[in-house]
Amino acid sequence: MTFFRMRRGARALAFATLLGAGLGLGLAGCASGPTRPAGWSAPQALVAPSPFAGVHGLAVDGKGRLLAGSVVGNTMWEVDRRTGQARVFIDAPEGQADDIAVGPCGELAWTNYLMGMLRYREQDGAPLQVLAKDLPGLNSLDFDRRNGKLYASQVFLGDALWEIDRSGRNPPRLIRKDLGGFNGFEVGPDGLLYGPLWFKGQVVKIDPASGALTVIADGFKIPAAANLDGKGNLWVVDTRTGELVKVALADGRKTVVAQLEPSLDNLAIAPDGTIYVSNMANNAIDAVDPATGARRRLTGSPVAVPAGLRIDGRTLWVADVFGFREVDTASGQVRDVFRMQRDPALEYPFAVGVSASRFALASWFTGTVQVVDRTDRRTLHTLHGLKAPYDAIPMDDGSVVYTELGAGTVTRASGPDFAQRTVLASGLQGPLQLARDAAGQLYVSEAAGRVLRLVPGGAPATVASGLAMPEGLAFTPWGSLVVAETAARRLTEIDVASGNRRTVAENLPIGMAGGPGMPPPYVPTGVAVGEDGSIYYAADRDNGIYRIRPAR
Questions:
Q1: Buried-exposed string 468-504: b where 16+ CB fall within 10 A, e elsewhere
Q2: pLDDT at 32
Q3: 27-41, 149-163, 226-240, 538-552, range with the lowest pLDDT
């Protein structure tokens, strides 16, 4: 992978209830907002769905098939090189692939990055085998086509290069450690391994027998992957700059052949010379002509893995795992706020909170909450070492409130560098997403099936129970609460006063399962409600963002 507030007293809550918190009360006779609708329209895509959930490793096999790996999506896909249509080639979770390699006799191997495993099969339909495991961050791999030897590297969660026993009987042989992130490499016809050093801005070749390393070229920002074309050139993608660069092996001379978007991840060269390049932040694969640099987009999307949502006016803010985006709800236009690797402070955001002056981006994967100035988009501070934060909200007083799934808590961080921590609720059974009502009261969804209201100085009050993995939640203008029940694949509207419920929509593309070792909520399904009562939700099963309008 180249692959989480403010409160007021009971009087304010009673006041909010009188203004229409109940489903049956609405805001009839009040000119300040829409009333409770009789029902809901069918979901419509505001941002169209797309395959992958982040696309990484690419390979063209002996049958001419373009294979693409996804880590977050836990699947390997086949992409039609003519039409761009994609279909699942190896399903989740076994298909989780950060990189893919094709052997000299059509063998297929791929890296389960999050599982730390290397999977393999001899041919189509053959049983899947695990050739290596317990290698965190197992990232890139390739075969030596002369003799079938298989090599793999660890990056990010480790930093090492290994030879993998094809029989699976012997442990991997360590070739070299602490290389600097030997990512996206390829074995050349001379048996040497050619690839980039992510953290050193270099492309190198490594002798797998001795571990000897030779620098071919340097001066890259973040080289992510490299492939040989058989004509004396090494083609390199720079993920930070978005450049596709040709490097002459003879003298290391570099030529930028195509300018693509940042967040490039990998590439593959087809027999006809076409270079296929993946972009993890756009679920995109481009076909590039090496002679002219002209590109043709096979498939892609303006978002990658939409997760947490917040809305402010007509702007929908989206934590997109490989980016942070804003979506115009009138037009559906998507714009980058941050993009993975182009903006180095970004840490795989799974949730977003919004105040008048700040954003808060939470990532359970990195254990961080990033607080960002809303005006100049400057990172003010990043809270590290948190236990799977699944949501965060910046407060008007400058503090930030966040959930920690791993600790079972909701915490307020305040003061210089947010060093002062106050636990607002503890002993929770999987606290996930947060919401505030019109009176400023905080609510939290709990993986165990409840929605709780946080009570200052007291135990949380249960608003609803018996829900099916509730994740995203948001208040409507008439005071009800909309919750994504991801295990049931539905949105539910709840009267917070009486607990009465009604289904907003069901059979939705939400509730994607995580792979082994991942937290069960995995990618949170974000929910937001606009001023007109329209409901927005992020769909982790197809990567779309949908709108449901009130029907009156």
A1: ebbbbbbbbbbbbbbbbbbbbbbbbbbbbbeeebeeb
A2: 59
A3: 27-41
